[in-house]
Amino acid sequence: MEENEITALKRQINELSAELNSQKKYGLVWDKEKVPERVVQECEKKIPVLAPSSHDFALNAGITDNLLIEGDNYHSLVALNYILRNTIDAIYIDPPYNTGERDFIYNDNYVDKEDGYRHSKWLTFMQRRLCLARTLLKDDGVLFVSIGDDEVNNIGLLLASIFGEQNFIGLLPRIGKKSGKTTTTIAKNHDYVYIYTKNKDLVTFAEQANDRDEKNLLKDEFYEERGAYRLNQCLDYDSLTYGKSMDYPLTINGETFYPGGSKKDWERRQAGEHGKFDWTWRWSPAKVDFGLKNGFIVIKNGKRKRIYTKTYTKVSIVERNGSYTLEKVDDTKAFNSLVFTDNKYSNDNAKKEFASFGIDEKFDFPKPSSLIKTCLQMIPKKDMVVLDFFAGSGTTGQATLELNKEDGGNRRFILCTNNENGICENITYQRIKTVITGKKVDGTKFKDPAPGNLYFFKTAFVDDSDNTDQAKYNLVSQLDPLLCIQESVFLPINRTNYSSHYSTENGKRHLFIYNDYFNDERMKRFKEDVAKAQGEKIVYIYSEDNEVDESLFEDIPECDVRPIPEKIYEIYKQIVAGIKRGE
């Protein structure tokens, strides 16, 4: 063997050894580069942006601004990262389950069970998107992921590596169907929902309504106001910390009671012969008096007569400024890990729900809107942004709109989906339009409208360039849709070859964009347009160095001037660097 060949072999051995030593000793390791994903590699030379779809798809029927984005979800997530980092409250996704039954496409080809890189392709596909999704989540944001048996273990490790295992909330089973397929082993009747947070320490989960089975509860004349009640708490206990003020004679209807039932033992305790824990009443004399007057106290016969207190489901006794009153309470309980095993979350219900829209297109494996509604109800916010980047038939959009209608919320959604077989325009859009308008595609009534605005965009590209200034100039001319989304200002007012003007529907907020090199005459006309607008004005000015001369607009009130596109281009370059590192 030649000396140079020996040197090359030693170098290769050293490289392999270093790679082996640098790998994880525990966790998820897979071949990421054997079959690179084409849509990701595209981003090394092309900058993903968003382009407006036909205005025929815009719906202005409410106060919430919602988005539907058509295109590969990787490109959509890259574009959203320019403007919406750390702004998303909740993400729900229903990715391909990778069953090997033509449910997962990678590089334009279905991945079947015979593909030796089946799981590696899926993990590579998911990792890229989940990393981008994590940067979009707020620090107290929550992620929900539906998944099946084929990848439940793999994605569990992947989520732990991206979000940190300390931010794991739960892996909840979801009923798929009451009866599974015929099998010689065990019929599969469920899949799963993973729940992760970005920072568990910052997250508080809501509680759900306590749908009580009242057959074991009691009712009295106060039922309508106070609900049913339990009678399982005695007024006296021997396990309470002893306090002399709570150890007193209690006379009801001429009969005197003592904690523990013995006057002699009461006298002994009063003389100081008591333990740290001993017989006392739970309530003070004043609270007992209030309880007696308001029907909270019951005397029951047994080995000795004992006093019991009623615990109602809708009210409780509270002390306010030294006196007692009744206060309504929410009859709630924490969500539990079996919440999705109720039949309303099943595939059968999802199929019936999808069929009710009368959309003349086939869609396999929809999820029921009840599933996404419950996920959103776990988050104690009614004003939040919800993202679904595997939007499919648009269930998340329906759930968000209908939940707003039910509880007066102000939730907004962003749906990202490809247009394979016309799904985005023919299914997703039509479903959301039906929910918003209350009318099916054929014009018949669906339900009462669930109002909301909907804006439809498509992914597009701007060529990157070795000349950074040229690349920025190429980019700035295509930024209108992204800036409209960032500022929630969508109504086009005027467009020239160097500037744009958008407004909100009520005209109280304006977005102006100057997207060309500085020119005295053009800038003069642009300023005149800005000055004419009434209300708040956000003004973006093209800048190669991230600097703008704010003094140009100092004489115009309510005017906020910002540079573009330096920050956006920097984020794009960060993402490209991550692609090259295999992140």
The averaged pLDDT comes out at: 91
CATH topology name of the largest domain, in short, is: Rossmann fold
Q: Structural class, please? A: alpha/beta
Number of helices: 16
CATH architecture descriptor text of the largest domain: 3-Layer(aba) Sandwich
Taken as a percent bin, the fraction of beta residues is 25-35%
Low-confidence stretches: none
- The CATH superfamily of the largest domain turns out to be Vaccinia Virus protein VP39
Classify the helix fraction into a percent range.
25-40%
The span between the termini is: 38 Å
Domain module count: 3
Largest sheet features: 10 strands, mixed
Number of strand elements: 28
Shape: globular
Radius of gyration: 32 Å
Describe this structure in words.
With 583 residues, the chain is of the alpha/beta class. The protein folds into three domains: 78-209 and 336-419, Rossmann fold (3-Layer(aba) Sandwich); 214-333, no CATH class; 464-580, no CATH class. Helices cover 31% and strands 26% of the residues. The chain contains 16 helices and 28 strands. α11 (395-407) links the parallel β21 and β22 (412-417). The model has no long low-confidence stretch (mean pLDDT 91).
